[in-house]
Amino acid sequence: MRSTSTFDALCAPLDEVVEIMSSRGGDVSALATEQSGLAISVDDRKQEVSETPLLRGVVLRAFDGDGFVEFAADGERRAGMLRAARRLARLAKRGGTQREPATGRFETACAIDPATVTPEEKFARVRALHARVRVLHPKAVNARATYRETISLQRFRSPERDLVQRVVRVVATAILFVAEDGRTEYAYEPHGGTKGVELLEFSDDELATMRDTASAMLTAERIDPRTYDVVTSPEASGLIAHEAFGHGVEMDMYPKERARSQLYLGQRVASPLTTMYDDPSLGGEYGSFFFDDEGHLADRTTIIRDGIYVGGLADEAASLALGYPATPNGRRESYRRKAYARMTNTFFAANGATRDELIAGVDRGMYLDRGSSGMEDPKSWGIQVTMRDAREIRAGRLTDRYFKEVGVTGYVPDVLGSISGVGNDLAFDAGMCGKGHKEFVPVSSGGPHLRLVARLS
Amino acid sequence: MPRDPFERLVTLLGSMPEVADWKLRQRVDRETQLYLVGERREALRTVDGDRYDVTVYVDQDGKRGTSSATLLPEHHEEWADRVRAAVFRAKLQSNPPFDLPGRARYRAVALVDATIRDHPDERANEVAERLRRHVRRERGVRLSSAEVFLTYARTRFANSRGAAGAYDETAADVEFVVLAGDGVSGTEALEQYGRRRVADLALEESVADAARAARDAITATPPRALKAGAVVFNGEPLRDGTLSDFWQPFRFHLSAEAAYRKLSRFAPGRSITSGRLAGEPLLLAADPTLRYGVASAPFDRDGVPLHRVPLVDGGRLARYWATKEYADYLGVEPTGALTNIDVRPGRTSARDLLSDGPVLEVVSFSWFNPDFVTGDFACEIRLGYERRGRTVRPVRGGAVQGNLFAAFARAHFAREVGWMGTYHGPRSIRFDRLTIAGS
Prior knowledge:
The structure holds 2 protein chains of 2 kinds.
Chain A: H1 5-11, H2 14-21, E1 28-43, E2 47-51, E3 55-63, E4 68-74, H3 78-91, E5 102-107, H4 119-134, E6 140-157, E7 161-180, E8 183-193, H5 204-219, E9 226-232, H6 234-246, E10 276-278, E11 301-305, E12 308-309, H7 316-322, E13 330-331, E14 340-341, E15 345-348, H8 355-360, E16 364-368, E17 371-375, E18 382-394, E19 397-411, H9 412-417, E20 421-422, E21 427-435, E22 438-447, E23 450-456
Parallel strand pairs in A: 5-7, 9-16, 15-22
Antiparallel strand pairs in A: 1-2, 1-3, 1-6, 3-4, 6-7, 7-8, 9-23, 10-11, 10-15, 11-12, 13-14, 16-18, 17-18, 18-19, 19-23, 20-23, 21-22
Chain B: H1 5-14, E1 21-37, E2 40-60, E3 63-71, H2 79-92, H3 114-118, H4 120-137, E4 141-159, E5 164-180, E6 187-195, H5 203-218, E7 226-234, H6 248-253, H7 256-260, E8 284-286, E9 309-313, E10 316-317, H8 324-330, E11 341-343, H9 350-355, E12 359-365, E13 376-388, E14 391-395, E15 399-403, H10 404-407, E16 411-413, E17 417-420, E18 423-426, E19 428-437
C-alpha cells in the first residue's frame, strides 16, 4: 500500500498511545488521518492549480461511562499524544462498543492512480477538457473544467483492531455557462468516485447532452405547482433516496427523538417494489471506504426490503444509547469533528423496466433529470429536493418543453408509497452531504429510473 | 535561522529566487465542543489547531501563477519540499499579472470574548446549563439535543510587499433542537447560529422563539396556493452563513471575480433587480468594522485593510467587492473580501409589513437555497403563518417559488434590525408577488 513518510510518522506512536489509554481497562481508540490532494480549475479567464487543504492529525477517544471524551489536534507530536493519552486513561471506563479483533491494510483500486500522474499531466488533461467545452455553444460566456483529488490515509487503532486504509476520491466536472438577453444559465456534467484520473475522460455524448441542456435552460419555464406523475432519472432517484429516507434512518437521531422512522421499524414505508441499501463496500463509488471512522469494516446495510423498513444506520453513540448493533456509518468531517451516523452510498435497488417503458406509462407528467440539492426533515418526514431541470412527458413521450429549478416536496411515505415502476438500470452520483447544515462528508446516492407521484413547484 | 517558525518560513520564502511574491498566514486555535442528547452530555471534545498557509506567486513571460500549501509546525523537515511543490504548480499557470497589497495600517476591531479565551470549558458548560434551564421554563417543550462550540483563535499574517498584521478572535456557536407534542410523532424547531461573544447569543430569546415554533408546528397545515402572493421572510430565511443561502446570489454577482469571469448579472450604475422597481430600493454595504460582527476582521486573506464599502445604493450597483487580484484585473480599487452584509432598514414596522392584506409570513424554510447564478428558487416551507386580517394560521409544507432578483423589484424592508449570521439588517423583508405552492 502506498503511504507517506509523514503519515507513517504520525502513526508511529499509536500503539503506545492506545496501550496507555487502555491501561486501566477502559474502552478507547485512536484514529490518525492524513488527507492531501490537488485541485485544478480552468475556465476562459483563469487557471488554478493548488493543493487541497492538508489535513493531518489525530483524534483519541475514551468512553467515560456517560459518553465519549475526545482529544483532537493537527499533526500532534508524540509527547502531546502521550500526555492526552494519560489524561484519557484516567477517565476511560468499560461499557463502550466492543469490537471483534481485526487487522488489515486496504487500498482503493484505480485505473490511473493520481499518485502516478504528475500535476503537469493532470493540468494538461483539464485544459484539454476545457478546450472541448468552450467550443460547444455559440452563446457560451464561459466554460469551465475542474478536477479535484483527495487521497486519504487513515489508521484506526484500538486494543482489538489495527486497520489502515488509503482511499482515493476524484471529482471531475465540465460546466458550460450560456447567456441570452442578459440572462445567464448553465449546465454541467459531473464525474465522481473512489477512482482515479480516468474520471477526466468525458464522452462526446456527455458533452453534447450538457450543451443541449444549456440551450434548453435559456427557454425553460417555471413549473405550475401541483402534483404530477413523474419519472426520475437515477440521479433524481438517488437524491430522493438520500434526502427522503436516508437521513431519516441515521439512528443518532433516535435518542434525540428527531426521526419518525423510529416508529416504523418492521413496518411498510414504501411501495412493495422498493428496496433500498446503504453500502460503503461498493467498488468505485464516492462514499466508499474500507472501514469507518469508528473502526467498523465496510458492509451493506439493507434499509428497506420490499417496502418494509428493516434497519437503520447506527454510529457507536447511537448503538450504545439504543442497544442496536453499530453499522459502518460512524463518520467524521475530519478528526477535528465528532463522529455521527452518516450515509455512504445510498440507493434504490434496480428491478425490471426500461426507462422508455416507464415514460410510456405516463400520460401527462414530468421527467426529472439533473439534481441540484436537497434537505432532510426526518422528524416530519417532509422532503425538499431541488432539480436543475425537468422535461415534460405527454402521451408517454418526452417533449421539448423544459422547466428549471423544480422543487420536489411531499410527505415521505406518500412519495415512496407511490412508486409504481422501477427501472433496470443503476447509476450513482457523487456529492458532499451535510448533517443539517454542517459536518460535510463524501457520499454517493443513486438508483434506477423510478415512476412515482410527487408534488412539484 | 530564527527560532520562531513564522519567521523561519519568512526567511525560507525570501530565499527562493523563483518566488516573485508570497503571503503567509498562521492560525492557532483551540476549540471546546460540548454535545447534549436530551439533557445528558453525549460527548466532550477539545481540538487544538496550529497551521501555516503559504501562497507563492511565480512570474513568467509577463504572466503570473499562484499556488498554496499548508504547513504544520511539527513537520518542518518537509516545509521546503512542500513550498517547492507549490512553486511548481504555480509555474504551470499563466494568468494576467496582479500585485499584492503593501504595508498598511489596520484598524482594530473588537472580536474577542475574554471569557471564551480564558475559560472555554467552564463557559461551554455554562451555556449548556443555561440552555437546559431556559427550555425547562418553556411550556410544552423539551430539549432534544444541543451542540456548543467555543473557539479562540489567533491569526498572524505577512506578505512579501511588507503587509503584516495579527488579530485575535473568538466564536460562540450553538445549535439546539426543542421538541413539542407527543414523542417521536411531535414537532421540532432547530436553532443554529453563532456570535463572537457568549453574551450576544441571547439564549433566552432564541429558546423562546424555538419553543413557539415547535408548538405552532403541531397545528400547522399546508398554505393556500397563490400565483402571486405577498410573502414576508422573517428572521431565519434571511440568515447568511447557516440555515439559509438567501444572500449567496448577491455575494456572487456583486463580486469582481464574477464580473471578470463574465458571469455577473450586475453592472455599475445599473439596477440589480429584474423588472421595474415597484418597491423600496436595496441599500447594501460590506461592513467588516461592525463590533463583534461574525465576519468582522481588520484585513482580508491578502492583507487588504477592510473598511465599510457601499455595494448597492438605491437599488443600483455602486461597485463590486474585489480582492486585490480581481481589482487589478478590472482596474478598480480593492475592497478586500466580502465579510458582513449590512442592509439599510426600511421605514415600516415588521408588524405593518404583515398587516397589509393577506400575507404569508415564513419563519423557516427547509433550506432557502436559491440558485446562485440564476437566483431561481423553489423551497419548502417548514413553518409559516398565513395572515388574513386578524386571522393567523400556522402553516407548513408547500413551497415558495420565484426568482430573487425579480423579488427585490417588489421588496419592502422592516425598520427593526438584527444580526442573522453574517447578515445585519432588517429582520423582515416583504416580497409582493411570489408563487405559493400549497394545498
